[in-house]
DNA sequence: CTATTTGATAACCCATAGTTATTAATCAAT
DNA sequence: ATTGATTAATAACTATGGGTTATCAAATAG
């Protein structure tokens, strides 16, 4: 039977591979179970490989099926993005670029980038999403993201990294706090305060750096609260629940009842880096590359 | 009409995009022209993009179509390879790895690699093809090759390179030539001879190095013949048509009427490098990586 | 031992890929 | 202009095969 493999087969295969249950997969696909069974069987015949082990009571993937699932996930992602890009290009757009970023990057580097790119390529569309370091790395690896703005010491193989901004750290205090620029000499002056920090799973490098800043001055901070949003942290500081240490550039763009005091004489820097995949196939990336 | 895009559409689209002629494309696909026309039209409707400009006398791709063609070429290549790998895994094989190499790599590094990998993973299949530096780089870029063994100073972005073997150069002479190991001091002793070299388009770095070896000794070689095959070069030397300079390791594995004299006191080295793409998706590559 | 769950089989139906026949437009050559 | 050749689109038809319902057979649970 000289059948031909089609995307339909792949779609059905993935549904069964995920559900590991023919009827549930069929429901999800809005087709009948026998129809699904036949298509899967046909697919196995076409490529000549048993993909599922049916134990009459349990369905599981073979090793080959496992491999195929992983690749087909990637292939579908690529096809979807390609069609999306094709539509954008057709509409006269220069395409879309998908950017992930830490909140702090929104204060400095990202707005600059958007403005510069927009001047040159007014038809490039941006898809911006705030997300953690970890999720950005994952997004880049899975080709679901073109650029990421992270604070990381190193990234997995296959991902490129380049520093785009080096920032100092600032102490964040309630507006009515007794410390001022003139009488602020040393971070140890707040060693007895409670600290509010970014969660370590949002950015573990950040977390470690804050710890080392304090340790260098001879104390371990009492961490009372953690959050993933700068705004939340500021609100907590404003409410008198503690103090915080954050990258200095975060003081712009918010209108809150806190004050920033740049921490003098410390070696730690808040480095922001872009990450990307070397052989990203999004043509937009080449265009905007020189703006980084 | 809630149609669904299928690989069939992609196949047909690529045929028309290549032929730029509906009837010819239809012939190639062994279907009728109206059938093809309708499928293309349907595809355009599904993704909502005009892919071809039909001037009633000439068919051409739109910008969006051009982009789509490039990506679909890549996607089909990926799908084909994935299915091939799936079949191999199913057969108990650990998959296939596609290696390109310069002839000279077959003397040293490649046989070693094959033996070592085979000990550990007896089910990994090798696809070996001798090809020029240039074609290897192209193969790597298009994901049609997993590893390349080249002699290059640098490679395009997105491709990784690592030196695996550093070799000296040897002078190749007919067996009855008056120069012997004892009376061979300097390459200038053959400055009046004709030279037979590898073609510069087979390996331009090699070509440049040979030239610089001679220039360092104060002469420009008279190049009388060029070839892409070591065997041919040796045959020409044997026939008395000239002398050659090649990487020393080439002396093993051939049984020819020529003799090798290692060239003393020169700075030039014949460096052989592996090249690969960082995010190659062939799982076999990871496995054999440590053997390099 | 019965009830239930689940995938495979069998037989049928109809949507649609592909067919043939024809038309309409464009161009080249007289 | 007229004719002829090329080429894609349209129209009408055909039949393959994807999807359906009904049913079975094996495997577990209670």
From TrEMBL, chains A, B:
SUPFAM superfamilies: Periplasmic binding protein-like II, Winged helix' DNA-binding domain. Keywords: DNA-binding, Transcription, Transcription regulation. Residues 5-62 form the HTH lysR-type domain. InterPro entries: LysR_HTH_N, LysR_subst-bd, WH-like_DNA-bd_sf, WH_DNA-bd_sf. The keyword Transcription applies. Pfam families: HTH_1 (PF00126), LysR_substrate (PF03466). One of its GO terms (molecular function) is DNA binding. It comes from the Bacteria. One of its GO terms (cellular component) is protein-DNA complex. Belongs to the LysR transcriptional regulatory family. This is LysR family transcriptional regulator. It comes from Aquimarina muelleri.
């Amino acid at each position: 039977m000289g059948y031909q493999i089609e995307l339909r087969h792949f779609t059905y295969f993935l549904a069964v591979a995920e559900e590991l249950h023919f009827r549930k997969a069929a429901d999800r696909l809005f087709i009948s179970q026998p129809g699904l069974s036949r298509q899967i069987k046909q697919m196995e015949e076409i490529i000549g490989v048993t993909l599922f082990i049916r134990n009459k009571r349990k369905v599981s993937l073979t090793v080959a099926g496992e491999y195929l699932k992983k690749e087909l996930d990637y292939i579908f992602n690529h096809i979807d993005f390609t069609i999306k890009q094709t539509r954008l290009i057709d509409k006269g757009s220069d395409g879309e670029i998908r950017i992930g970023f830490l909140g702090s990057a929104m204060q400095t580097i990202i707005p600059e980038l958007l403005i510069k790119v927009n001047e040159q390529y007014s038809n490039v569309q941006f898809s911006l999403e705030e997300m953690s370091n970890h999720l950005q790395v994952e997004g880049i690896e899975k080709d679901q993201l073109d650029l990421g703005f992270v604070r990381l010491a190193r990234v997995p193989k296959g991902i490129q990294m380049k520093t785009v901004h080096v920032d100092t750290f600032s102490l964040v205090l309630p507006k009515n706090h007794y410390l001022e620029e003139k009488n602020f000499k040393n971070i140890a002056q707040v060693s007895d305060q409670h600290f509010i920090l970014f969660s370590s799973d949002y950015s573990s490098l950040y977390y470690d750096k804050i710890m080392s800043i304090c340790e260098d001055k001879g104390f371990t901070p009492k961490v009372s609260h953690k959050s993933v949003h700068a705004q939340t942290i500021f609100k907590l500081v404003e409410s008198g629940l503690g103090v915080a240490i954050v990258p200095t550039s975060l003081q712009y763009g918010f209108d809150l009842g806190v004050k920033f005091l740049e921490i003098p004489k410390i070696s730690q820097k808040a480095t922001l880096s872009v990450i990307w995949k070397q052989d990203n196939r999004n043509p937009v990336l080449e265009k905007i590359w020189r703006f980084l």
